[in-house]
Amino acid sequence: MSDRRLTPANARVALDGFAHSGQTVVTPERATISTPIAALRASPAGKRDRQLLWGEAFDVLDRHEGWAFGVALRDGYVGYVEESKLGPDQTPTHLISVRATHLYPTDSFKAEERTSLSFGSRIRVVDERHKFMEVAYGDDGETAFVPKPHIRPIERPFTDPVTIAQLFFGTPYLWGGNSAFGIDCSGLVQAGLLACGIACPGDSDLQQSLGTEASGGYQRGDLLFWKGHVAMCVDDEVLLHANAHHMAVAYEPIARAIARIEAQGDGPVIAHRRL
């Protein structure tokens, strides 16, 4: 049985190679997320699977009654996004490289912010000022300003996923979350890996195929999996994970976390993967 999260087809349309009887084969239309966060849903107005961030690419396969069905470019995750949260295709140049930042109407930190963006959001720089970068904002040529220290060129990936994950320390836990305003276990791991140029799927069961099975002790960057949960090792004694016990991204001694999770009825570690 195909995984609907990774199958670019619904009852009406499909990408070439995925079509069955009654489905029309379509060519994807590249769009861009135009709000700070957009929910990627299993069905129109259905439950949230994941979140997409400002500037991320979304390949639209179908538009119907205010909903766009398509594929998230970052990881191939398939779902529905409200059409109102999509803008035209724009090629980003930089990403937000701090936990969160603000976009301002002028190049002044005293100006009232227009919106806030999470780490990993993608922007297109159009001009440079003394302490700010001017970035594209909206569909009509409007611009906004972001502090220079808060962005990084897309072609310069980070090198340590753990360092990126640590940026989210204290972030509230949110099921299906992918941002600095709320994140879950697999969203945290994905944020760290994608920022370092490492391909990573969106959910923990899919992430279990990453790397190779590890043996012996724990190393920085190792991933530990339980059924429905994933954590990242900071070193040989401590892990970092977004979890519902703390309702936040939290550090926890590895041995204590393993014992606690099993004691609460969620079972033992089922995989230890090394990237």
Descriptive key words:
275 residues, mainly beta, SH3 type barrels, endopeptidase fold (from Nostoc punctiforme), 3 domains, 6-stranded antiparallel beta sheet, 5-stranded antiparallel beta sheet, 37% strand, globular
Could you walk me through the main structural features you see in this protein, from its secondary elements to its overall organization?
With 275 residues, the chain is mostly beta strands. The chain contains four helices and 25 strands. The strands form eight sheets. It has a six-stranded antiparallel beta sheet with strand order 20-25-21-22-23-24. A hairpin with a 5-residue loop joins strand 7 and strand 8 (78-82). It is globular and about 55 Å long. The model has no long low-confidence stretch (mean pLDDT 97).
Poorly predicted sequence stretches spanning 5 or more consecutive residues: none
> Which strand order spans the largest sheet, edge to edge or round the barrel?
20-25-21-22-23-24
Number of helices: 4
Overall structural class, as computed from helix and strand content, comes to: mainly beta
Oligomer: single chain
User: What general outline do the C-alpha atoms trace?
Assistant: globular
Q: Looking at CATH, which topology of the largest domain would you report? A: endopeptidase fold (from Nostoc punctiforme)
Helix content: 10-25%
Q: How far apart are the termini?
A: 28 Å
Number of structural domains: 3
Based on CA atoms alone, the radius of gyration comes out at 20 Å
Mean pLDDT: 97
Second CATH tier, the architecture of the largest domain: Alpha-Beta Complex
- Describe the biggest sheet? 6 strands, antiparallel
Give the CATH superfamily of the largest domain: endopeptidase domain like (from Nostoc punctiforme)
